[in-house]
Structures are given as structure tokens and as C-alpha cells.
Write a structure and sequence with these properties.
By secondary structure, this protein is an alpha/beta fold. The chain contains twelve helices and 13 strands. Helix content is 32%, strand content 19%. β8, α5 and β9 form a beta-alpha-beta unit.
Amino acid sequence: MIYIRADAHPDVGMGHIMRCLSIADACHLAMDIIFILAENRVADFVESRGYKTFVLNTAYDRLEEELNRWPDDPPQCIIVDSYYVTPAYLTALRERLGDSGKLIYLDDLALFPYPVDILVNYNVYGLYLDYTGLYDHRAVPHLLLGPSYAPLREMFRGLPGREQKKECTDILISTGGADMIHLALKIVKLRPTGFNYHILIGRLNKDRDEIKKLAQSQPNIIIHESVGDMRALILSMDICVSAAGSTLYEICACGVPLITYILADNQIPGAGTFEKSGLAVNCGDLRTGDMDSAEKILTAVERLAGQYEYRVEVGKRMQEMIDGYGAERLVRQLMADER
């Protein structure tokens, strides 16, 4: 049995849940999997994907307070994906597992020496973090670092090389599960022209109704919700815009030229490394709360649309970095008898 501890919330978005679902899918139902959730906000969604849930009815950002609410049955493996872990919390889970179980943590931040068996950081910058130094001569967990371990959905495996169009017509703007800065609404209010703008609205977006109402009078604004075939949607675009989270790696697998931006502190290193590596245009931190954030995005779209040779080059680099098999590599390591 595997327990996966992750949450979705308007303050943290859907990224943790989505990447953990990719890992669960890669297990091919070889073991029973239960998602441990702080609240039932996305329990139905997880269950619709074929997995059991156990709702703790606790606060997603106070993990130590939940430990006495966990299921009694000891699992063989616990996977944790939350920015709110503490050394005490992880130590308690490690003790719960005993000698025969494994504790895995999906990290983005390298904040402290995590007391786990396997530490995963699949981000582009994960290869450059000094995890060994972080542990200061203590035992270092088995490290799985870099984008070769990016846990993408099966639909993003082994895609063929992309041929870029010289003239751009269709732009995808993904604003995450919650869109805490109301970026989608701001863009629609600007009534952009020149391209077909496909706005991807997440499950936790509070502006949904207003966005749909405004889009009715703008034929070049197309709203997408609960997309079943995300690969097909991305592949039909000429440029994709996304916050610097897990979606970047799906876009890379498709080879669609990319514009990224920052919504949270943990996205700063990812956006910066994508920019330095020549993999994306970075619009920077958009948490200012004003209309300039939408204007920055639209200006970047117009500029990138006019750079055909750059789009061809960057598309090749993106697909060279991501082949879509990261979840399978990750699961093989997690299920190995020896670390």
C-alpha cells in the first residue's frame, strides 16, 4: 500500500495533486494507493481518477497537527508533496513506517535536511542544488534530481519533434488551478486582438463566471475548462503561457515555445533557470496586483510571435530536455528493493 500526502487549495493551486496523480498512474495499479488529503476540496476529483482518499479534516499548512488522524494501517511507502513539511513531521512519518517502509519527499525548495529515504527534485535547477552540503556530513537520502524525473502524464511520453509555424495564430494562457492574481480576468478585460487567445481556467478559479461572461462578446477568446486531452490542446497552440510550475514540463514535452511568469516564491528559481537555459521567456513576478501583469504577458506574446527562428531553436531544446518518461523512471526508483 502507498499513501500519497498532497493538497489542493486556492492558496497553493492544483500542482501538487496533479504531479502526484501522474506518479500514481505510473504505478499501473501495482499497489493500492490512498491519497491523504487535509480537506475534501478535491477528493471527488482524485476518486474520479480511480484512487481512494482519506480526508483528515485539518489545515493544509499545519501538518504536525494532523499526525494523530492518519490511518492506522501502516503502508509500505509514503510520498509527501507539500511545502509545509517540518523536520518533526517527516521524522514522525519515518518512524511510523519502521525499517521496511520508504518515505519519499518531492522537494522544490531545499530548505533543510529532510529526514527521508528518497528525495526528489525534478526541476531544471534541481541538478544544481547542493543537497549534500545541506546534510552536513549526515546520511544523505537517495537523490533523484533533474527533469529526467519530471512526473508527466502518460499522454506526454515520447512525442515527435515539433515543426513550428512561421505565423502564430493560437495562444494558450494557463493561469493555474486557482489564479490567485486574477490574470485570466485581467487579460480578458483588456480585450486583446491579433491572435486567438485560449484561456485555460483551473478548478479553483473564483473568476470563472465573470471571465465567461466577458468572453461571450470576444470571438477570439476561447475558454477551456476540465480539459481531458491536455496534450492535444497544447500541441494545437503556437505559443503557451504558464506560471513556472509543473505545466512547464508538459509544454516542453510538446515543444511549444513558452512564456512563463512567477506566482509564488517557490517558482522563482524555476522561472530563472528556464530563462537562463534559453527554454522560456520570463515575464518575472506578476504578484503586483495591477493590470500591468496582463499587459506584460500580451507584450511578450507579440514579441515571441515575431521571432520564428528563435521559436524553432527553443522548441528543439525543450523536447531534448523532456521525453515524458519521468514518472516511470521515478516509480522504478521508488519501488526498487535497494536504494
